[in-house]
Amino acid sequence: MPATHSALRRGLAVVVAVPLLALAAPACGYGSQAKDNGTANVAAHGKKLSADTVRIGYFPNLTHATALVGDEKGLLQKELGGTQATYSQFNAGPAEIEALNSKSIDIGWIGPSPAINGYSTTEGKGLRIIGGSASGGVKLVVNPEKIKSLKDVKGKKIATPQLGNTQDVAFLNWVAEQGWKVDAQSGKGDVSVVRTDNKITPDAYRSGSVDGAWVPEPTASKLVAEGGKVLLDEADLWPDKMFVITNIIVSQTFLKEHPDVVEAVLRGSVKTNAWINTHPDEAKAAANAKLEELTAKPLPAQVIDPAWKSIRFTDDPLAATLGAEARHAVDAGLLEKPDLKGIYDLAPLNKVLKAEGEPEVDDAGLGVK
């Protein structure tokens, strides 16, 4: 394994085998076990495509709601016809990348940091990003008794989900922009960065072990329910308040051998996002129903309502922001400069978007040659 990406890879590889209801990023979760709930809840029917089945991976996270809703409502299966969709759930970005590389899954919803790492460690031969799914849903939530303004963050203990994950990189970048210094590996410096699994961050906040957290939804809203205050929404730091939090990736082998299946999944994703955006309350209920099925615990209204409002569902992979996130990891010293040329293949998505009467999306110069 090349040493050039070892720092970020070590961070991404830390796993805890627990159910997760929040992103990991980048983003995307930190357990290690995939849960395969077998066939889709809508039986395959109609004309079979070039593959008998397509194995789809995603996380039981609100930022993966396109997959949650598409699975729950059968919208992905509908586009696949006689090709059967099967679903596996992951709690860790590294675990999903491993599953893709080992051909245990074919397509997956995943955050930007694992996608970058998965592409880089295979020297550009493992995956392609073929679509977007979600933007936003990340906040700095603090104890209002200890932190009343952004400058008060200096000297405090702030949780991030994991060394090198998407939110960790974003917080380190923000800290650097304030002129403060933090050692990325140890988390020590002008701010103490405390890497804490999202599942236990609310307990750490409640006990006073941390003074705040830079975290994705619904962890951010869980902290607010504990009395925390949103000090900063990460969306406010990005142009047009949009930044990638969830991508769709595919094995390059599967993309080459079954382009019709990939196109069908993308068509299902586009139609699912359209339904989510036109039926937000029904979509929120569908996502929560799927979360309850997968984790045995739905999110309470006081958590899911504000969390849902902060996530924007989009087909655009927001490629320029992925490039920026990679640069932030490099600047933090967590990643050697990666060559991301070719990480995107948006031709299938743009074909679907054109057929749906929607504008095409751009790969920011990072597409296949």
Task: Explain the overall architecture.
This protein is of the alpha/beta class. It is built from 14 helices and 12 strands. Mean pLDDT is 89; it is low at 1-33. The longest helix has 20 residues, at 259-278. The radius of gyration is 19 Å and the shape is globular. The strands form 2 sheets. Strands 1-3-2-4-11-5-12 form a 7-stranded mixed sheet, with helices on both faces.
Notable features of this structure?
18% strand, globular, seven-stranded mixed β-sheet, alpha/beta, 369 residues
Secondary-structure topology with pairs:
Elements: H1 6-13, E1 35-39, E2 53-58, H2 65-72, H3 75-80, E3 84-89, H4 93-101, E4 107-110, H5 112-121, E5 127-136, E6 138-142, E7 157-160, H6 166-177, E8 192-195, H7 201-207, E9 212-216, H8 219-225, E10 229-233, E11 244-251, H9 252-257, H10 259-278, H11 280-295, H12 301-309, E12 311-313, H13 319-331, H14 347-355
Parallel strand pairs: 2-3, 2-4, 7-8, 7-9
Antiparallel strand pairs: 1-3, 4-11, 5-11, 5-12, 6-9, 6-10
Helix pairs in contact: 2-10, 2-11, 4-5, 6-13, 8-12, 10-11, 10-14
